[in-house]
């Protein structure tokens, strides 16, 4: 991972190496944070953020579910996102939004810990590559929604994904798929999963513990426009073994075909996967006018303005100061 020039933190852009938190930050000890992963794609009109509004809405929903007050409006976070990408000069990149309980007091209760918000961008290729994902069913179960808010994209529950991913990599696989407590397929460690059977798309529902993915939703919409039927329904482990095609999708992964599950070979990308991957590529890169509304152009940075001190740093710090004082 190549470092960028700036990270936005609570109203201003700071040099990458100076974006620091205290060792007693509440989120570091207790996982009290929510996050978003968003991508910027190079389009004929310049860099553009894909489905930024939807990502920011999900960030706000996740924060609300875990009781984390957000000190910035969606409009302020939108402006800060664009300012960060512009200041770093990215034509294409990954963007990480993070809102976490900061340093204030120790202990489980976090009433005096202010919310700290940061936005980082860096160049990051698709995480699962393009040669086919070798998938294994993990021995770890997906977090149960009765134990943690699985619908929230929160940092604490990601330990579940870390354990499953490490298990898969140690066993010689690329990725793991997790089952829920009832034995149904949930999702992979950082991506949603689609099964193709008899030309029909099937993907696990949120009730299975799967995060409602924005890329998942994108592919369902693309499939509808291509005349490919899709449904969210419970899937068993054996449905993976019997699939004609399987692919994973997510902001970090893009669209990645699965070449094998637990040693059962599927081969290269099938026709439905290839068709959807091409449609996704066209939509994200601004080559299909039907989906231009999903792209938010990144304005060019003003070369005469110092990003660290000038007006292009995004929203002011008043909201953060107010939240800190209130807490």
Automatic annotation (TrEMBL):
Residues 298-327 are annotated as: Disordered. It comes from the Bacteria. Pathway: Amino-acid biosynthesis; L-valine biosynthesis; L-valine from pyruvate: step 4/4; Amino-acid biosynthesis; L-leucine biosynthesis; L-leucine from 3-methyl-2-oxobutanoate: step 4/4; Amino-acid biosynthesis; L-isoleucine biosynthesis; L-isoleucine from 2-oxobutanoate: step 4/4. GO terms for molecular function: branched-chain-amino-acid transaminase activity. It holds the Pfam family Aminotran_4. Residues 299-327 have a biased composition (Low complexity). Its EC number is 2.6.1.42. Keywords: Amino-acid biosynthesis, Aminotransferase, Branched-chain amino acid biosynthesis, Pyridoxal phosphate, Transferase. InterPro entries: Aminotrans_IV, Aminotransferase-like, B_amino_transI, BCAT-like_C, BCAT-like_N, Class-IV_PLP-Dep_Aminotrnsfr. The keyword Cell inner membrane does not apply. It catalyses: L-leucine + 2-oxoglutarate = 4-methyl-2-oxopentanoate + L-glutamate; L-isoleucine + 2-oxoglutarate = (S)-3-methyl-2-oxopentanoate + L-glutamate; L-valine + 2-oxoglutarate = 3-methyl-2-oxobutanoate + L-glutamate. Its cofactor is pyridoxal 5'-phosphate. It is an enzyme of class 2 (transferase). Acts on leucine, isoleucine and valine. Belongs to the class-IV pyridoxal-phosphate-dependent aminotransferase family. NCBIfam families: ilvE_I, PRK06606.1. This is Branched-chain-amino-acid aminotransferase. It comes from Actinomadura luzonensis. The lineage of its organism: Bacteria, Bacillati, Actinomycetota, Actinomycetes, Streptosporangiales.
